[in-house]
Amino acid sequence: MSLVIRFSTIGRRGERKYRIVVKEKRSKRDGKALDTLGFYEKMVGGKISKEIDQKKLLEWQKKGALLSPSVKKALAL
Fold this sequence. Notes:
- It is a single chain.
- The chain is globular and about 40 Å long.
- The longest helix is centred in the last third of the chain and has 9 residues.
- Strands 4-3-2-1-5 form a five-stranded mixed beta sheet.
- The protein has a single domain, classed as CATH 3.30.1320.10.
- It has two helices and five strands, in the order ββββαβα.
- By secondary structure, it is an alpha+beta fold.
């Protein structure tokens, strides 16, 4: 079982918000997640709101979960 930390969409069309979740690599984007680590949201005017539990993130990475490219880019901001 390979694990990945990636975005799961919530919100309405045009007002997208994302949860940062741990899932199996082959599962659906918005399917059941093993754990929720935080959220990411782009607001009007280019502002970005994000929150992530660093302890959980490190814990899952120690267990072998990899960051998706989009999450890696979002966390680098």
